[in-house]
Design a protein that fits this description.
- The protein is mainly alpha-helical and about 110 residues long.
- The protein folds into 2 domains: about 30 residues; about 50 residues, no CATH class.
- About 40% of the residues lie in helices and about 10% in strands.
- Strand 1 and strand 2 form a beta hairpin.
- Helix 4 runs antiparallel to helix 5.
- The longest helix is centred in the first third of the chain and has 12 residues.
- The protein starts with a strand and ends in a 17-residue tail after the last helix.
């Protein structure tokens, strides 16, 4: 069972976040707002900056592309937070599992 934590109304399930959170609590640091910095977040706007990335790609290739294309700092930071195990990512869905697909927008192109 994966651990999760409610934080400002959102469920966080990032193990690294939870470990850092627990370690900081043991050290007597209990300012919850500072712990939000340890989690990666994606929005449609941020994810759209990687639409033209050279898929499939490794973490380093994606970071290089984001830097060269002038992507916002948040995109680069999110990519840097990915644990590098030499994985090759086929699409944005591999990085952000909740990335909405065309079906999620309920738009039927055949009707128009």
């Amino acid at each position: 069972m994966k651990k999760s934590l409610k934080f400002f109304g959102k469920t966080l399930a990032d193990d690294r976040f939870l470990c850092t959170f627990a370690a900081n609590l043991e050290q007597g640091q209990n300012n919850l707002i500072s712990y939000r910095l340890y989690t990666m977040y994606w929005t449609l706007e941020l994810a759209s900056k990687l639409e033209d990335a050279p898929w499939p790609a490794t973490k380093d290739e994606l970071v290089d592309y984001a830097q060269r294309s002038g992507a916002p700092l948040e995109v680069i930071e999110n990519l840097m937070e990915i644990e590098d195990e030499g994985d090759v990512y086929e699409s944005m869905e591999d990085i952000w599992p909740d990335y909405p697909s065309k079906e999620d927008f309920f738009f039927n192109e055949d009707e128009y």
